Amino acid sequence: MTTRHLSLLKPSGHLTLGNLLGALRPMAAAQDDADCVYGVADLHAMTISHDPAVLRSRTAELATLLLAAGLGRSTLFVQSRVPAHAQLAYLLECVATTGELNRMIQFKEKGRGVASTRASLYTYPALMAADILLYRPDRVPVGDDQRQHVELTRDLALRFNRTYGEVFTVPELVTPAAGARVMDLQDPTSKMGKSAADTAGVIHLLDSPDVVRRKVARAVTDSDTGPDAVRGDRSQKPGVTNLLEILVACGGSTDGLATYGALKKAVTDAVVAELEPLQKRYADLASDATHVAQVYAVGAARARDLTAPVLAAAEAAIGL
Fold this sequence. Notes:
The chain is mostly helical. The chain has eleven helices and five strands. The strands form two sheets. Strands 1-2-3 form a three-stranded parallel β-sheet. α2 crosses α10, α3 packs across α6 (about 120-135) and α3 runs parallel beside α11. The protein is globular.
């Protein structure tokens, strides 16, 4: 049986170099020996205050970037075009408890210091569980930031099966192979994130060469001026280490780099070379919106075919 890989990306900001090296590259490589199903999680982007026009724009940008990044051999879809996601989410809300949802760390963090939050932020873990269970994966790769949500997914699947009958495959949690971990250029102790409020240290996939050069030139290093200043040391030299790791991940060489100026020039050249073909493919695809829409229409149709029997089985089991 072919392994199925499932991943949904939220259009909450513009994709970054970190997303490319740490997520999109492994997703593309998985197409060689797996049935890959990748979605744009637009429903996830509605759990906090949002501008509808911005959501549509970012959804279109993300959808096009996934194709530009070489994921065209996968089943690509936009989450809201597969109604089973929202439908199963409600059934799982009927299985989840307020105690479980109260314990979700992301809800606590995003709701901290805020007078009011959307109910969808509170019930978001049920939607994430539906995203997973609809495709019946045997294993779910999970990082530390999502472990709690996937553990809840397992709990809900087990409880549903025990209460209403065997419907869901209970996925095993697996730790994915360590991918490139790109840190913020201004704060190398924090991951480079697409939702960062301050983008000075974030390289976006559609940044021009001049913008990349400016951001790398301003990257935080340290005051070391010794002959071995350009060296990796995550605890003592996080900024320099981050630049070195970006350089290697983008195919550059660390040989002969004696100064931070030389390092930053090498990083700039490597990043620009890495992004240039992707940006060209993106421009070509963005000029042919009909083609992109057709790819995602075909993908959504397959996703609906995959999810329909799971939803039907859950509905019948729960009494609908």
